[in-house]
């Protein structure tokens, strides 16, 4: 794994850093794994211990390594608040900014999916057979040219009208069409907001654990993430306030409905208090709300959106992508008209605008039968969630957090934390789950996509989870 340092190829400590980084990137060193001692590394590199210490300290400062007193150096499993590139190297710049975090684990999942008996509960999408059956219209070229005349800076006008009507009817949103911008999915909407409103190195607070930690877009925009723990009601506001003061937080990004990965729903009181806190410090809120359509309860019983509480200081991000799969990426941003116009101009400058074809297809989603099709999806998801909850009641090791909507479940247990070794062993045994450390939190938890379960797969799932429990209790 380690090669002797060639003193003719540049600074010795830099070469050591290179070797350690490469071994992390190719999976030879896994997140959470302990490095050899300073003395042993000095022997491997055939150099002095002082230089080894300098290389390790540099990597620690960059967030690549962590240290534990009396225990040694470890590969960092989380990087909250860190964004840095160790040197100007195009390959590393690309790797640091655009590659997925912990992609070695995802690569193992991809390989495991080739096995016919692999149980994939890791994927972030619902299975195709569960998606609504939407019929897309056929248009001639002449018709497409005519429809192109209806394109505006904010999007295809018929689509803007459909989204406005849908949000108004279903969720009692009150806004004008000039306050809505159509985007290529929810993630692109967030990227556009970060790229437009923040500067490189600015800090953003997010819930912890959070799927945002998995997104390369934060590295791409140079944004530093600070994870704020949650309690039963949502993001912890006392800790958030301290982080705003200490880390100069420039925005708060929350996923209040069926939070990914925990499935939590932020309480109404917590939403009200979050708005008050952010007003106090003049920190804008970005409300990522892509799962509202998949609630298992009636809209009137659901908490009011954070945007509705403070439309002047909250940007609302919605999406159809969860329901339409990867083929039709549609999202939107709702906010103050002046800001929406600025985001629209930025979107044009970045050439992020969608083609007329995609927007016409998305408009067809809001046909008269869409509500009925969506209700069918919700019912199927609720039935699958009940299968998982019944399993949880029959065993006494794992705990499944309450499932109120969406298609993710958060499973926890008492005792040993989820490690890369245990997760890899689960994959080897044919069980694909998303471990907590993928979401920036070193704890004993896993995310499960229960939309991929049925009666038969539940039997397999129960057997393999029992094996996993054995590993966790060993």
TrEMBL record:
* Alphabetic keyword roster: Aminotransferase, DNA-binding, Pyridoxal phosphate, Transcription, Transcription regulation, Transferase
Q: Does the keyword Magnesium apply?
A: no
Q: Which PROSITE patterns match?
A: HTH_GNTR
Q: The HTH gntR-type domain covers which part of the protein?
A: 10-78
UniProt cross-references to CDD domains, sorted A to Z: AAT_like (cd00609), WHTH_GntR (cd07377)
One GO MF term attached to the UniProt entry: DNA binding
Tell me the Pfam families matching this sequence. Aminotran_1_2, GntR
- Listed name of the protein: PLP-dependent aminotransferase family protein
**What family is it from?**
In the C-terminal section; belongs to the class-I pyridoxal-phosphate-dependent aminotransferase family.
Q: Please tell me the species this chain comes from.
A: Enterococcus durans
Q: Which InterPro entries match?
A: Aminotransferase_I/II_large, HTH_trans_reg/aminotransferase, PyrdxlP-dep_Trfase, PyrdxlP-dep_Trfase_major, PyrdxlP-dep_Trfase_small, Tscrpt_reg_HTH_GntR, WH-like_DNA-bd_sf, WH_DNA-bd_sf
């Amino acid at each position: 794994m380690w090669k002797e340092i060639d003193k003719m190829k540049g600074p010795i400590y830099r070469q050591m850093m290179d070797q350690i980084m490469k071994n992390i990137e190719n999976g030879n060193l896994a997140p959470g794994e302990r490095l050899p001692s300073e003395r042993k590394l000095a022997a491997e590199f055939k150099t002095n211990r002082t230089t080894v210490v300098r290389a390790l300290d540099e990597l620690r400062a960059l967030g690549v390594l962590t240290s534990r007193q009396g225990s040694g150096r470890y590969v960092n499993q989380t990087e909250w608040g860190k964004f840095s590139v160790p040197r100007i190297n195009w390959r590393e710049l690309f790797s640091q900014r655009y590659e997925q975090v912990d992609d070695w684990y995802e690569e193992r999942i991809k390989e495991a999916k080739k096995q016919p008996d692999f149980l994939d509960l890791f994927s972030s999408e619902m299975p195709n057979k569960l998606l609504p059956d939407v019929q897309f219209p056929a248009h001639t070229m002449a018709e497409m040219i005519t429809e192109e005349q209806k394109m505006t800076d904010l999007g295809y006008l018929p689509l803007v009208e459909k989204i406005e009507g849908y949000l108004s009817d279903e969720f009692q949103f009150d806004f004008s069409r000039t306050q809505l911008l159509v985007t290529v999915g929810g993630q692109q909407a967030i990227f556009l907001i970060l790229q437009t409103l923040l500067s490189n190195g600015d800090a953003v607070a997010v819930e912890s654990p959070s799927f945002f930690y998995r997104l390369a877009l934060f590295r791409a925009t140079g944004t530093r993430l600070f994870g704020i723990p949650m309690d039963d009601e949502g993001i912890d506001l006392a800790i958030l306030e301290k982080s705003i003061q200490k880390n100069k937080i420039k925005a708060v990004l929350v996923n209040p409905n069926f939070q990914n990965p925990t499935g939590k729903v932020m309480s109404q009181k917590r939403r009200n208090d979050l708005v008050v806190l952010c007003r106090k410090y003049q920190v804008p809120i970005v409300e990522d709300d892509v799962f509202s359509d998949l609630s298992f309860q009636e809209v009137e019983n659901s908490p009011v959106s954070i945007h509705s509480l403070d439309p002047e200081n909250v940007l609302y991000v919605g999406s159809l992508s969860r329901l339409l799969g990867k083929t039709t990426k549609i999202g939107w941003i709702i906010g103050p008209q002046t800001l929406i116009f600025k985001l629209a101009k930025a979107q044009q400058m970045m050439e992020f605008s969608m083609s007329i074809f995609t927007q016409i297809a998305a408009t067809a989603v809001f046909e008269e039968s869409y509500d009925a099709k969506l209700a069918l999806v919700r019912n199927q998801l609720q039935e699958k969630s009940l299968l998982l909850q019944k399993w949880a009641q029959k065993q006494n090791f794992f705990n499944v957090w309450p499932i109120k909507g969406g298609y993710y479940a958060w499973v926890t247990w008492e005792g040993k934390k989820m490690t890369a070794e245990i997760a890899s062993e689960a994959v080897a045994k044919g069980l694909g789950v998303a471990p907590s450390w993928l979401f920036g939190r070193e704890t004993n938890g896993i995310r499960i996509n229960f939309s991929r379960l049925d009666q038969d797969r539940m039997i397999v799932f129960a057997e393999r989870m029992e094996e996993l429990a054995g590993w966790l209790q060993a």
